[in-house]
Design brief:
255 residues; alpha+beta; five-stranded mixed sheet; three-stranded antiparallel sheet; 6 helices; 12 strands; globular
């Protein structure tokens, strides 16, 4: 059995209404022309601009600016608010949310970016986490796995053929990151304290949680295909979701 990897991305310039079981996932191209970068920068608050400007390389600064600007643009469309007016609040471990006074529809979101791709997941009243990673074969090492994966995950990796190892590593990594982002507790949840399914023949799932009171049945995992050289995963509360994969085409003329 091969894993069904969601990969049918639809190009669109803006979101539609989101139903109670729907999850909208946006793929955002972070390499943009200078006019688009400046348009996105104009949407940011002072603290966000300061965060962008702390990046040493212009490439990283611009990618952060586009990701954050697209986040504001898309959330503003869902909320029918000026993107500049959205107030973010942050949980104890830094997970962002929309200020309650602006979020009567119960919108939930999570943003991830790596390399030239950003991904934004949006739902209503369902906690969720998304992670995208640019594949780096040198990162997918036994040493990294031993440091961050559970003993069961490490043992499973060692059973795989050499040509399966890198892909399996990033499937495991993105699913674990998506889960801790959905929980909103960051690295206060040790990555080796829970186990996910990630082998080539396994559908993505949370298999066990070794500490705390969370239950695997609470979550549904989805494998995503954001493009060649990238792996991604989505973790969502509940079940029987309707996924809509969308390409954000926020060109300068549409901003």
């Amino acid at each position: 059995m091969t894993v069904n990897r969601a990969s049918r991305w639809v190009k669109t310039s803006g979101p539609e209404n989101i139903g109670p079981r729907e999850v909208h996932v946006w793929r955002i191209g972070l390499t943009q022309p200078e006019p688009a970068i400046q348009s996105y920068r104009g949407l940011l608050r002072t603290d966000e601009i300061e965060r962008a400007d702390r990046f040493y390389f212009a490439k990283d600064r611009n990618r952060f600016t586009v990701a954050r600007g697209a986040l504001r643009r898309l959330l503003g469309a869902y909320l029918t608010l000026d993107p500049r007016e959205i107030d973010f609040v942050y949980g104890p471990q830094g997970k962002p949310d929309i200020a309650t006074s602006q979020n009567v529809s119960g919108l939930r979101f999570n943003l991830s970016h790596s390399g030239e791709i950003g991904m934004l997941a949006v739902s209503r009243n369902l906690e969720l986490g998304v992670d995208v990673e640019e594949i780096r074969a040198d990162f997918a090492s036994e040493e990294i796995a031993a440091r961050f994966f559970s003993p069961e995950e490490c043992a499973k990796l060692q059973t795989l053929a050499a040509n399966e190892n890198v892909d399996a590593f990033f499937d495991c990594w993105t699913r674990k990151e998506a889960y801790i982002k959905a929980r909103g507790q960051g690295l206060s949840i040790p990555l080796d304290s829970f186990e996910v399914a990630f082998a080539p023949h396994e559908e993505p799932a949370l298999l066990q949680v070794k500490s705390g009171d969370d239950l695997p049945a609470r979550w549904r995992f989805y494998a995503l295909y954001p493009g060649t050289g990238y792996y991604a995963a989505l973790a969502v509360e509940g079940e029987q979701h309707e996924l809509l994969l969308q390409d954000w085409i926020g060109e300068p003329g549409n901003l």
